[in-house]
């Protein structure tokens, strides 16, 4: 397995950790906010793990970006590459939307940390992380994505 294949594999697997942590944290934040619950250590840990796993996914993504033959094609022929949906998606759309989602998570996490009350912390996480979920689900390749069809779980290259 070469470096590109390895990166594609870990980018595909870590996506599950990043997305599942995001779903769990967001669900608990909505429950906490609407149910007026106390913001516990568990919530702080989950919030940090979610932001961290998503940052890791972005780092893998950036390294992969400079190894991908699709992106290399775009760099060699920008005009022609943009005409090919998969090349335009991975070269421009996927990276842009995912970086915006990571920014939303980072800002949301930082604002929540400084929240004056437990309700404000939950509310910040619920709103910011829900926006991030929408962006990530829109730009995540999968068998049901209208933009880039890729496997749910890459088992081999
Ligand atoms: C939460 C953020 C992200 C998620 C959930 C995500 C998810 C995915 C998934 C599921 C794939 C398909 C993997 C496969 O074919 O098995 C993929 C491919 C890819 N991702 Fe991401 N990604 C994220 C962020 C990024 C970022 C920020 C970049 C670039 C800086 C990036 C660059 C790429 C590239 C270049 C490919 C395809 C490479 C190829 O097929 O040659 N990703 N991503």
Characterization of the model:
Helices cover 77% and strands 0% of the residues. It has 157 residues and is mainly alpha-helical. It has one domain (3-139). The longest helix is centred in the N-terminal third of the chain and has 32 residues, at 3-34. The relative contact order is 0.16. The mean pLDDT is 97.
Quickly describe the structure:
This protein has 157 residues and is mostly helical. Helices cover 77% and strands 0% of the residues.
Integer-rounded radius of gyration: 17 Å
Q: Sketch the major β-sheet.
A: none
Order of helices and strands: HHHHHH
Q: Strand pairing plus helix content: what structural class?
A: mainly alpha
Global shape? elongated
**Span from first to last CA?**
8 Å
Helical residues, percent:
over 70%
β-strand amount: under 5%
On the 0 to 100 scale, the average pLDDT is 97
Hetero groups bound?
A: protoporphyrin IX containing FE
List keywords for this structure.
157 residues; mainly alpha; 0% strand; binds protoporphyrin IX containing FE
């Amino acid at each position: 397995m070469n470096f590109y294949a390895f990166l594609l594999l870990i980018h595909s697997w870590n996506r599950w950790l990043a997305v599942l942590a995001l779903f769990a944290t967001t669900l608990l934040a909505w429950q906490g906010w609407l149910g007026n619950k106390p913001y516990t250590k568990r919530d702080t840990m989950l919030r940090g793990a979610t932001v961290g796993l998503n940052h890791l996914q972005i780092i893998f993504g950036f390294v992969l970006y400079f190894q991908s033959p699709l992106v290399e094609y775009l760099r060699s022929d920008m005009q022609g590459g943009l005409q090919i949906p998969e090349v335009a998606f991975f070269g421009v759309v996927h990276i842009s939307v995912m970086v915006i989602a990571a920014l939303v998570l980072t800002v949301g996490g930082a604002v929540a940390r400084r929240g004056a009350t437990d309700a404000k912390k939950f509310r910040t996480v619920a709103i910011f992380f829900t926006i991030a979920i929408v962006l990530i689900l829109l730009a995540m390749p999968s068998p049901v994505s209208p933009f880039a069809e890729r496997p749910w779980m890459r088992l081999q290259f």
